[in-house]
Amino acid sequence: MPHVQRHHGTGITAVVVGGGVGGIMTALECWRKGIQVRIFERSLKPETEGDFFSIGPSACKAFEHWPVAKEEHEATSYDFCLSYHKQNGEHIYGPVPLAVTTTNEAGETTTNTIRVHRHLRSKFQKVLLKQLTEIGVAIEYNHRAVKYDETNDKAIVEFENGVRVEADLVVAADGVGTKSFEVVTRKEVRARSSGYAIYRTAYPVEFATADPEVDSKFPLLPSGQSYAQMWVGPDMHMFISRTEDIFSWSLTHKETSADSAETWYGTHSKCTPADVVQFLEKTLGSCPDILRKVFNTTPEDHLVDWKILWRDPQPLWTSRKGRVVQLGDAAHTFVPSSGNGATQAIEDAMSLASCLEIGGKSNVPMALRVHNLLRNQAHRHHTNWGLVAQNPQAIKESYDRWLWAHDAEQYAYENYGKALQHLITGAPFKNTNAAPGYVYRAWNIDELLAKQEAGIPIEV
Ligand SMILES: Cc1cc2nc3c(=O)[nH]c(=O)nc-3n(C[C@H](O)[C@H](O)[C@H](O)COP(=O)(O)OP(=O)(O)OC[C@H]3O[C@@H](n4cnc5c(N)ncnc54)[C@H](O)[C@@H]3O)c2cc1C
């Protein structure tokens, strides 16, 4: 079996809270960089919920160091072609692979075909979990973090079951409802409703192909490749996709309920195909017959109406004494249609582990601050997640070179020293992991929604 090359031991101990994509990848990358790591998760066992998400090219770079996981990641991911349609199903163009206008290294404009790996969340989690098991790190389930704390030389996390764990650092990778705000910002930045929700589901393809019309309208491509249709209309868009083993559909729509619980699980309610038909009849006046047929292939209890939550961006992810750091959705939220949440969590993991390795055991707080500085710029620029619910094609535009070609590990190695100088002496430092020419302006969700309401274009 191909071997993972582990770096020299650093003597650093790390605790990761949260066994999602961000947490597991952090545990893997920390282990690889010679850090002793433990990982805790509140659920009782691995969670298989969820449907599809995207892993962008920048995150795929993490697998270069994990040969077995890389092979499985390639084998389990889906390569989609996409066609675009009006909300009544009328064809606009496609199917086409995800091709984007971008720039090459010489700065010339070119059209590239960028492979974005689409993954069924449950399969991707399994790939990561298997890798974790292979290196001998086991997730400690049934540990719900309730409090993060720190001293000058230790980070502490307390769990609901009374267990208290200390380490050189604690990584809060506990998702959008993280309990780490008290120690990081001293004030909670609550996740709130974006005003949109998604009816979403994924199930074995046999349920869908049992209806001959659904089978023929949503075929695999002649090459056997997975095929998705995007139907776009005012204030809503729909994805219907078919792979060799999974059929999936989702409908992003405006939601009116003020309810916004703060966990992935708590943000959705079970619903039925009849609810979706009723919704379309109410908003569009009718529901196309083929959609009614698609909805009706959904197995019982497989459909959820998932509220999209977001938080105002906040630049600080590291606690005052530099012992606790937020990572992934705990640090920054992305709406699902931006296709960026899992990708950014993986990039965070690569950056954090590299900074810790460079800084060493005696410089953990500074390493966390450098990581925060190196990563923050990129996230601040991803304002596209504000408009994708309205204009999902914005995701295409956002795959510019600076974004997809980024190597978070190499970036940390190359920029750690300069970022450190900046933090210690105030020497000038400018991140380069941002759209060329872009000048950051602080923003918040209310501002974004007001612009959207007034029809003012939102900068991507
Ligand atoms: C069950 C589930 C299903 C998902 N399905 C989809 C999907 O279909 N499409 C999509 O785009 N995105 C989905 N996501 C979100 C997506 O995985 C994340 O946006 C992205 O991968 C970033 O990962 P993360 O590790 O930062 O956060 P998450 O993936 O949300 O992981 C956070 C982890 O922390 C755990 N946790 C939370 N609070 C605590 C606590 N107090 N103590 C200990 N552990 C805690 C959670 O159980 C979870 O395992 C899903 C997330 C989850 C948890």
Automatic annotation (TrEMBL):
Plastid as UniProt keyword: no
On whether Oxidoreductase is a keyword of this UniProt record, the answer is yes
User: Where is the FAD-binding domain positioned along the sequence?
Assistant: 14-356
What are the coiled-coil residue ranges?
none
A single GO molecular-function term is: monooxygenase activity
Q: What are the record keywords, sorted?
A: FAD, Flavoprotein, Monooxygenase, Oxidoreductase
Gene3D superfamilies (UniProt xref): FAD/NAD(P)-binding domain
Q: Which domain of life is it from?
A: Eukaryota
Instruction: Identify one Pfam family in the record.
Output: FAD_binding_3
Co-factor requirement = FAD
| Family per record | Belongs to the paxM FAD-dependent monooxygenase family.
Supply the name of the protein: FAD-binding domain-containing protein
The taxonomic lineage of its organism, from the top, reads: Eukaryota, Fungi, Dikarya, Ascomycota, Pezizomycotina
